[in-house]
Amino acid sequence: MSENPSAKPAAPAPVRTTRSMTGAGRVLVAVYGILALAATGRSAFQIADHFSVAPVAFTLSAFSALVYIVATIALIAPGRIWYRVAWTTISIELAGVLVIGTLSTFAPDAIGMGAIDPFGQDSTVWSVYGAGYLFIPLVLPVLGMLWLARHKPVPVTGDTARDATATGRA
């Protein structure tokens, strides 16, 4: 067969990326999923039942639920964009836990909480640094960031087994 010198070469196939999901990664995603469900249920009940008691705190509960939902999806989904979304949501989560934890501990009236009670009716997932959830909301974003730093997405070409071996993720 003769080659046509004027023919343009075929465009390269788009490069996909993936992250390896190990046992620790699966546990991390499971905990994020559980917190997403817990925060969603808590905020839905608070808003539906007694929103007027602490509207700022309950809005923050709904916001934390949204952050946990997006973080869970971003940790599961492949690709560089989802990797960035995971970093963004987990960073927002850590900032939220630190800011809301500090406010709820030292100035609960600033966010509409009546008292410093992590188990109280008007508390949020992030109140008192997540004390009502065994401080998991404080520790989880740190673990999430460590996991993300160690599991950057790698390009996937035609031979995924070779790619995984070459990057040491087999």
Characteristic terms for this protein:
mainly alpha; two-stranded antiparallel ribbon; 5 helices; 170 residues; single chain; disordered C terminus; 2 strands
Please tell me about this protein's structure.
With 170 residues, this protein is mostly helical. It is elongated. It has a two-stranded antiparallel ribbon with strand order 1-2. It is built from 5 helices and 2 strands.
Short description:
The chain has helices at residues 23-50, 55-76, 80-106, 136-150, 160-166; strands at 16-18, 154-156. The two termini are 40 Å apart.
Counted beta strands: 2
Mean of pLDDT: 83
Report strand order across the widest sheet: 1-2
Q: Helix amount, in percent?
A: 55-70%
Report the span from N to C terminus: 40 Å
Uncertain runs are: 166-170
Q: How large, in whole angstroms, is the Cα Rg?
A: 22 Å
Separate helix tally: 5
| Biggest β-sheet description | 2 strands, antiparallel
Order of helices and strands: EHHHHEH
Assess the beta-strand content as a share of residues. under 5%
